Amino acid sequence: MAGIGEASMRAAAEGGRRFGIATVTPALVASISALADALGLSAQFTGTRLTEGDPVALAADPARLVDALAAATRACIEADGAEAVIIGGGPLAQAADQLQPQFSRPIIKPIAAAVARMLQLLSA
User: Fold this and answer.
1) pTM, full prediction
2) How far apart are the first and last CA of the chain?
């Protein structure tokens, strides 16, 4: 079994890449860090960047949500040195689709990563 957190971290860390997480949810920060530790990926994990603004208001305005996640993603890359960025939260997949063209680094979508991981596990 593989959850979206584990699957997305394993995908982001592929090949030894350093990775960060951009999310709208402050309550996830501690559990994200704990998961990176539990998976043995803490040396590659550059940290979590939160969007500015109220998460509920951002969710109600898709354009603002994408802009806020882009700023958090940029901080992961430019300030923290992330080589891949996970958009933390399954419901943010549409925003992640819009972010990828803005960045040369991989933008990881947790649900897609979990599906890929499950297919990989099933074929092993």
Assistant:
1) 0.93
2) 13
- DSSP single-letter state for residue 40: T
Rounded CA-CA distance 51/57 in Å is 12
Residues in CB range of 92: below 8 A, 6 or more apart: 23, 24, 65, 69, 109
Confidence of residue 1 (pLDDT cuts 50, 70, 90): low
Q: What's the pLDDT tens digit per position in 4-20? A: 999 999 999 999 999 99
Report the alpha-carbon distance of residue 108 to residue 57 in Å, rounded: 23
* Structure token pair of residue 46: 């550059």
Kindly indicate whether the domain formed by 4-123 is annotated with CATH number 3.20.20.80: no
